[in-house]
Amino acid sequence: MNLKLVYRALRKISDWTVYGFYSEVYVEGTENVPNDGPIIIASNHANEIIDVATLAVTIPQRRHVSFWAKSTLFTNPVFRSILSSSGAIPVQRNPNRDDGSSKAALFRSSSIALASGKVIAVFSEGASYTEPTIVQVLSGTAWAAVEYTRWRRKEHDAGKDVVIVPVGLVYTDKATFDSGLRVQYGTPIRMSDYVEELFDVPPGANPDDVAYRVVQKVTQRIEQQLFAMTINASDWETLYAAETLRAIVAPQLVLKDWVSVSQQLVDLLSDPAPSSPLGRAKESLIKYYSLLHYTSLSHSDLVSLPSCVSRIHYIMELALPSLSTIILAPFYAPALLLHLPACVAAELMLKVLSIREEPEGFGQYRAVGGGFGAGVAAAALLWHGRLMEWVSSQPRGWVGSCLSYLAVGWIIVRCYARLAPGLHRRLKRALVSYRILLGVLSPRDPGLDVGPYTKLPPPPPSNAFIRRHGRTSSEFWDKREKEGNREAPPPVAGRKLVRAVLEQREETERVVKSVLEEVGLRNLDL
């Protein structure tokens, strides 16, 4: 099968996945990507296959991107055919079992692709994982660039020098429909800047040692840019506190400023003295975050609600639908026929196929499952509905009928895509309203100790392919291990914690307002 046809089909699926699952995709720095010539994309990797799809659909000029992929994926005949046809390059993931031949084959295949002017994408962290910071940037990207440069000299190739473009991928909530995605293409790193150092080897020096020093310099530049384009905290406690603070002080924060503002808040809350104003604010933010977690709520769910826990206020606020919801109900009703199957399929696929200890894979299952559910529902609607009868009654041949079916199906899907985000928000709002109203109207449980639910939940398990050395300190991993040993409290119905959430929200907003006035909110770029 033609390489371009396979790749274009996969890229179209990626278009539907990325732009269908995320309500906003903000892309910055496209001017940093050359329109032609060999390029190595060096990206962070926090969201499994979604990261692959994102790079494929946001690369300027829609250039063909060949990805480094785990060699284990090539053992399956079906996957091997798809990956090979789309230009993927196999990578031996466990270097301890490599005698050097697989790396040589990897760099040789990469050099051949780059020599033809292609774009290669490498996830420089070496694995997709969920941590509060980038914990490793491996040297494979830099080695690929160095080996290509040396290969060109050996083969007397007159092509262009390769350019490395770091890319930062940041998700507002990577596994949630209708969230946001920020893509930033960084400053190009041109290997032409290192040609003289790489080949003007001093007498008696080992060329491989010189190459190693160049690799370290290039890797450091990649690492610096990846950190600058992403959000990084020293521990989960600081990251969760910063996320909660951002939701309170900047609820309408745009994706353009998402990273810069978030990192400012992380820096603000990093290691404050427990008795200081910031320390007290951080403690209150952690309690609020934990209660939200155990009730499956978010601060944005509570923004429009009154701060006082009054039954009358909440009944009036939550029980009565908004005027806009009443007006738009007739338009949303048809979309509901597709959206409910999409939601059910997304959660079913997540439950059946995902690994609970790998949250970096949740987004891909929800995105694919949701698209599959909506597609099946659209086909069923077209096949069994009146639309099918109308299309079949039109005087035309079988070719015209097929085109008519496709056209009507396309219209249905496009209309649904337009209405789905708004419909989802309103359904979510109705469900949240019901849960909060139920919690407010329910009597307090005198036997429930809320204290354990104000402690942080256990963090996601560490990825086995992370190397616990290099940039991250032993102090980080010691604290990470302690966080991993934290046990979750006994499961409890979320409605029993609703009052505690609302009370904690009031306290946290009061503390945050007081502290930010004291430390100077004007110093933050909000």
Structure summary:
This protein has 18 helices and eight strands. The protein is an alpha/beta fold.
What can you see in these coordinates?
The two termini are 52 Å apart. The protein is globular, with a radius of gyration of 26 Å. It contains 18 helices and eight strands. With 526 residues, the protein is an alpha/beta fold. The chain has helices at 3-21, 48-58, 77-85, 101-115, 140-155, 195-199, 207-228, 236-249, 258-268, 277-294, 299-302, 311-319, 323-353, 362-384, 386-392, 398-441, 474-484, 498-519; strands spanning 22-28, 39-43, 65-70, 89-91, 119-123, 163-171, 179-185, 189-190. The model has no long low-confidence stretch (mean pLDDT 86). Strands 1, 2, 3, 4, 5, 6, 7 and 8 form an eight-stranded mixed beta sheet that branches. Helix 13 (323-353) crosses helix 14 (362-384) and helix 13 packs across helix 16 (398-441). A hairpin with a 7-residue loop joins strand 6 (163-171) and strand 7 (179-185).
Measured between the Cα atoms of the first and last residue, the distance is 52 Å
**Helix vs. strand class:** alpha/beta
Helix residue percentage: 55-70%
Question: Helical region count?
Answer: 18
List the uncertain runs. none
The pLDDT mean sits at 86
Largest sheet: 8 strands, mixed
**Radius of gyration (Å):** 26 Å
Beta-strand segment tally: 8
* Shape descriptor: globular
Residue fraction in strands: 5-15%
The SSE string, one letter per element, is: HEEHEHEHEHEEEHHHHHHHHHHHHH
